[in-house]
């Protein structure tokens, strides 16, 4: 997956360098040089004066070159995810490129290089999905009623390291005579296979209450295929509040810490 890196055009760099030289050169030579350049290229000096504010350029360069801290990248990622609705119903090309650029920046700064050795300290507990490349689009979204009739709520994950279990809870609400709330619960077991990877096996799945199951009955296999976690998962970033993973289907998952009461 290629990351999009925004770098200012070369001429902007040259102008910024010239401006810096002018400011730092306290001696007469630097002043004479600037004056000579002004006399010979009046139009060029006007272009230098019209350059963009330096603050915006420096922030872009810091992000593009990877010099920002992990905290800055996390804040930028959360900002980039505003209004994206976890990516489940698609994103624009620009949104996707920016999110994936920040994901890769964080992965390069992973503070936990051997996450499966620290599952109890770093992974155990409750998490909420804030971004995924899994998408429900087109006819699939229509068949599942996820356009107008059914709303997709929070996607929560409970990791029990002691039991080597993972439970995914996907919340739904359906508009009928009244709002009907329910959830799809997918239970899985896992086993550690490397310093960064676990294998996941689907154990069971249920939809509650029964009325919601009746709504999804016809397309239940399709729904389960979307949220089936079976396969392997690589933990590419994890700290106290954020976790990123990639699976064998080339999906990306970004989750943040959540309180168990949200389940």
Description of the molecule:
There is one protein chain. This protein has an 8-stranded antiparallel beta barrel. It folds into 2 domains: 42 residues, no CATH class; 193 residues, Beta Barrel (Lipocalin). It is globular, with a radius of gyration of 25 Å. It is of the alpha+beta class and 263 residues long. 22% of the residues are buried. Helix 2 packs across helix 3 and helix 5 packs antiparallel against helix 6. Strand 6 and strand 7 form a beta hairpin. It is found in: Plastid.
- Kindly estimate the percentage of residues that lie in beta strands according to DSSP: 25-35%
Order of helices and strands: HHHHHHHEHEEEEHHEEE
| Count of discrete domains | 2
Profile the largest sheet: 8 strands, antiparallel, barrel
Q: Which quaternary structure do these chains form? A: single chain
| Terminal Cα span | 33 Å
Q: What would you call the shape?
A: globular
Lateral arrangement of strands in the main beta sheet? 1-2-3-4-5-6-7-8
Give average pLDDT, whole number.
79
- What's the CATH topology name of the largest domain? Lipocalin
Radius of gyration in whole Å, from Cα?
Answer: 25 Å
Counting DSSP E segments of at least 2 residues, the number of strands comes to 8
